[in-house]
Amino acid sequence: MPISTKYIKARPAGKVRFTLEAGDSGGAEQVFLVGSFNDWSETASPMKRSKNGDFTLELEFARGEEVTFRYLTGDGRWLNEKDADEFRYCEFAGADNSVLKLDA
Fold first, then answer.
1. d(Cα 95, Cα 104) in Å, to the nearest integer?
2. Any idea where the domains of the chain sit in the sequence?
3. Max CA distance (Å), the chain
4. What is the CATH number that goes with domain 3-101?
5. Is the pTM above the cut of 0.90?
6. Backbone phi and psi for residue 37, each to the nearest 5 degrees, phi listed first
7. How far is CA 73 from the centre of its chain?
8. Any residues with CB less than 8 A from the CB of 66 and at least 6 apart, and which?
């Protein structure tokens, strides 16, 4: 499952696990999660590679938050999340970004 969210009962937040599956990474050795949550930093959020070749990263976001993001491979390829809630065109990048909407 590429994106999974577990909501935290004690506070208005959710833990989101982003997964770029091995077959979707195109043989990448390194992947970063880049988006609105880290000011589109290309190095701030490296994903961890598992034994099966999937890349994962877990982050916490507030309920009701909308997160715009993409995956960036170490060799410079930008990839979208196939299971995003929607895709939104970004004029700056000249491409669609993935959008995740957390339940309020």
1. 28
2. 3-101
3. 40
4. 2.60.40.10
5. yes
6. -75, -20
7. 12
8. 99, 100, 101, 102
pLDDT, tens digit, 9 for 90 and up, residues 43-89: 999 999 999 999 999 999 999 999 999 999 999 999 999 999 999 99
pLDDT, mean of residues 10-26: 93
- As a dihedral over the C-alpha atoms of residue 39, residue 44, residue 45, residue 50, rounded to 10 degrees, the angle is 160
Q: How far apart are CA 12 and CA 6, in angstroms?
A: 11
Q: How far apart are CA 50 and CA 56, in angstroms?
A: 8
Residue 3: which of 56, 77, 73 has the closest Cα? 56
**Strand pairing class (66-73; 13-20):** unpaired
Mean local confidence (pLDDT), 19-39: 95
Which has the closest alpha carbon to 88: 72, 99, 101, 103? 99
